[in-house]
Amino acid sequence: MTNFAPIMDKRTFTHRFASGKYALAEYHSLVSPSDPSLAFERQMNSVLEAAEEASAGRTVHFRRFFLSDAANQQLLLEAALGRLSPAPVSVVQQAPLDGSRIALWQYATDPMETQDGAPAHNGYRHCWTGSLKAEGKDSLAQTASIFQALEGQFARQGLSVARDTVRTWIFMRDVDADYPGMVKGRREYFDSIGLTADTHYIASTGIEGRTADSRDIVELDAYAVGGLQEGQMRYLYAPEHLSRTSVYGVTFERGTSVTYGDRRHVFISGTASIDALGQVMHTGDAGAQAGRMLENVEALMAEAGAGLDDIAMAIVYLRDPADFRIVKEKVSAACPEGRILYVHAPVCRPSWLVEMECTGMVSAGNPGFRDF
Fold first, then answer.
1. Residue from 71, 58, 64, 53 nearest 26 by CA
2. CA distance 204 to 229
3. Beta strand pairing status for 354-362 and 311-318?
């Protein structure tokens, strides 16, 4: 169910999902100001007000703020976050393409208890990190340090990066310059913990995204689940549509599904206009690329028993804001209204003009596993 509620000077779309009459409900909220001409502080306050309203009586697991100008906005935002309930927070410069200066994605559930510093329910612990950073002279060094920091954080919560991580997001200050170093650093770290093309990698988006601190070359967000049984987490490939990422030297999975007793979560990595050989399709044509991108996302979702209608939240990244109109037309015709956020963020190959990631939810559980 999606509710559209324009209140004062903000827009809030909240997708609520619950499988079964008494099941614990989940809420993905996308928030943006309704008047992009307002000054940043007023836009920020309207978004924070909406976040408070969408948090009431719930456990907030994660918030990501998208800024148009982090150098001038991030410190103001961070100073104001104390009004919100505690939760991991990610802040990234990826300008919303509706002209706003700020937007928010917030994920919450019905109330959960806290265990080892993370929300917990029915034997599962849901561990999110936001804007994890590390020192280093370049993207290779920072990537290596960030994954070591993630390993330490998860270890303190009794989790393993290799076993329990469902999803990562890796933001680079300049994707055209920093992506090769990030790819090498991630690959070397995965090799060190036994993740290879013959075992598995982790679903991920690697995309441009800046912070207010020019020393931040790479930052990381991640999500892991503790308490999963063997077979609950599976990886998605859609080989008729997409190649394995290892074909062109990178190390992430196209998607991941996590099945509970009462539902299934589907996490689709950043997906672009690519074919089964790993080649870019429709070079120079953003509209055609968006069409192939949607076809690939749909194929990955189908592998998990889901469709585009089951998208709870999606982010569409555009290299060139001039392509916003044509891409939005394509995506809006195929995906549920109100569940898509469009931002300016170059993709890892210059010839890819558009990329999409999404989270889906379906009532396709397995009674052999505990409910969510």
1. 58
2. 22
3. antiparallel
Q: What is the pLDDT of residue 337?
A: 85
Q: How far is residue 202's CA from residue 221's CA, in Å, rounded to a whole number?
A: 13
| Two structure tokens written together for 214 | 């020019």
User: Is residue 226 within 8 Å of residue 164, measured between CB atoms?
Assistant: yes
3-state secondary structure the chain: CEEECCECCEEEEEEEECCCCCCCCEEEEEEEECCCCCCHHHHHHHHHHHHHHHHCCCEEEEEEEEECCHHHHHHHHHHHHHHCCCCCEEEEECCECCCCCEEEEEEEECCCEEECCEEEECCEEEEEEEEECCCCCCHHHHHHHHHHHHHHHHHHCCCCHHHHEEEEEEEECCHHHHHHHHHHHHHHHHHHCCCCCCCCCCEEEEEECECCCCCCCEEEEEEEEECCCCCCEEEECCCCCCCCHHHHCCCCECEEEEECCCCEEEEEEEECCECCCCCECCCCCHHHHHHHHHHHHHHHHHHCCCCHHHEEEEEEEECCHHHHHHHHHHHHHHCCCCCEEEEECCCCCCCCCEEEEEEEEECCCCCCCCCC
CB-based contact 335:311 (threshold 8 Å): yes
Q: What is the pTM of this model?
A: 0.95
**Residue type (1 letter), 287:** G
Instruction: Tell me the per-residue pLDDT of 100-153, one tens digit each, with 9 for 90 and over.
Output: 999 999 999 999 999 988 999 999 999 999 999 989 999 999 999 999 999 999
CA distance linking residue 220 with residue 324, whole number of Å: 26
Cα distance between residue 56 and residue 27, in whole Å: 12
Of the candidates 133, 18, 89, the residue with the CA atom closest to the CA atom of residue 363: 18
d(CA 316, CA 341): 6
In whole angstroms, give the CA distance from residue 202 to residue 178. 20
